[in-house]
């Protein structure tokens, strides 16, 4: 089968399209023939070796974190899916493998694809949808009705889903984004926009006189500023800040968990201290695969409550252009690879 692999750690030049062995189907798993795979900033981070200290790869390594496709076969013990089903899934963060014509995923991490959108576009849901869902849910921010939420960098894939889920939760949503993205983020439900090119978050809060209850940070540029605009007892959850205790040990290889635990405490020591001084809780997190959570997101899509915004679609052979679009940081929504 064809797959997109990383030949080593590095930039775009280490990625190649090659023929590899088909994955083996085991008990409790499904074999998916890929229709599309979503690209995410974490793909570039994994390729570059951002996590190699806790999760070193053996090369060549098939990349990719999320997939849509058609079930080709199911392993022993799988009853929820059958060959021919259209499905989506978030794959294992250590094994990866979504950039391939055939992908094996645990059935418990898989969901039936939405019926109301194209199967290709459905590939853009698993990672961003679960990330936003888990960040805003009881595991982390536990967003409540009428709370004031700030989402930084909201015009990307995770941010656009997070705006919609936050509004469904009854929150008041302010976002940071460029003026060029205003129409899109407001269509998703944003109540207020802070144009980061012309105004800081601090200035916006001083002008309004209202602090935020919670922040979902997708930028990571200035955590002390975010801490200063949150009420005492509030919370900042970040996808890009320094890792906090417990965030890396869950994804580290078994022989790297102690190293991960040390890294979490050292790297986040300063940020945690700054947050504590302002009476704010700070947490970094990495999402985890979740079939039931994905099924709930699919329900919201099919009921017209949630929309996946697709920036662009590329044939597999044009993977270099797809990654260039992703890494340009100019995409509004998801970049997809079609198989």
> Which fold does the CATH topology of the largest domain refer to?
Quinone Oxidoreductase, Chain A, domain 1
Mean pLDDT: 97
Q: Give the domain tally.
A: 2
What is the rounded Rg?
Answer: 20 Å
Low-pLDDT segments: none
Q: Which architecture of the largest domain would the CATH scheme give at its second level?
A: Alpha-Beta Complex
CATH hierarchy class name of the largest domain: Alpha Beta
User: Could you describe the largest sheet, including whether it forms a barrel?
Assistant: 7 strands, mixed
Instruction: Assign the CATH superfamily of the largest domain.
Output: Medium-chain alcohol dehydrogenases, catalytic domain
User: If helices are DSSP runs of H or I spanning 4 or more residues, what is the number of helices?
Assistant: 10
Tell me the distance between the termini: 11 Å
Summarize the helix and strand pattern as letters: EEEHEEEEEHHEHEHEHEHEHEHEHE
Number of strands: 16
Strand content: 25-35%
Decide which structural class fits the backbone: alpha/beta
Shape label: globular
InterPro entries: ADH-like_N, ER, GroES-like_sf, NAD(P)-bd_dom_sf, Quin_OxRdtase/zeta-crystal_CS, YIM1/Zinc_Alcohol_DH_Fams
Protein name: Zinc-type alcohol dehydrogenase-like protein
Pfam families: ADH_N (PF08240), ADH_zinc_N_2 (PF13602)
GO molecular function, one term: oxidoreductase activity
């Amino acid at each position: 089968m064809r797959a997109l692999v990383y030949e080593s750690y590095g930039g775009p030049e280490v990625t190649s399209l090659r023929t590899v062995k088909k994955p083996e189907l085991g008990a409790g798993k499904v074999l998916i023939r890929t229709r599309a795979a979503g690209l995410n900033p974490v793909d570039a981070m994994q390729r570059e070796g951002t996590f190699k200290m806790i999760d070193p790869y053996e090369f060549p390594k098939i990349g990719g974190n999320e997939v849509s496709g058609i079930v080709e076969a199911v392993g022993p013990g799988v009853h929820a899916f059958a060959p021919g089903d259209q499905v989506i899934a978030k794959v294992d963060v250590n094994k990866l493998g979504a950039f391939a014509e055939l992908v094996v995923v645990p059935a418990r991490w898989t969901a039936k694809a939405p019926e109301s959108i194209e199967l290709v576009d459905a590939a853009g849901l698993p990672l961003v949808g679960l990330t936003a869902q888990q960040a805003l849910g009881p595991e982390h921010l536990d967003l409540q009705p009428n709370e004031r939420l700030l989402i930084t960098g909201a015009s990307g894939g995770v941010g656009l889903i997070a705006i919609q889920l936050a509004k469904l939760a009854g929150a008041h949503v302010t976002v940071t984004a460029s003026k060029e993205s205003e129409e899109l983020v407001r269509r998703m439900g944003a109540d207020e926009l802070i144009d980061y090119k012309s105004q800081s978050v601090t200035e916006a809060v001083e002008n309004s006189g209202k602090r935020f209850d919670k922040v979902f940070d997708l930028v990571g540029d200035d955590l002390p500023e975010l801490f200063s605009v949150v009420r005492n007892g509030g919370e900042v959850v970040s996808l890009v800040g320094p890792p906090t205790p417990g965030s890396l040990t869950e994804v580290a290889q078994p022989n790297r968990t102690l190293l991960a635990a040390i890294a979490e405490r050292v790297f986040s020591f300063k940020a945690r201290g700054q947050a504590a001084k302002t009476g704010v809780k700070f947490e970094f997190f990495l999402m985890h695969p979740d079939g039931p959570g994905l099924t709930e997101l699919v329900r919201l899509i099919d009921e017209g409550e949630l929309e996946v915004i697709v920036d662009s679609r590329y044939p597999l052979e044009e993977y270099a252009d797809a990654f260039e679009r992703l890494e340009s940081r100019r995409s509004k929504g998801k970049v997809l690879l079609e198989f």
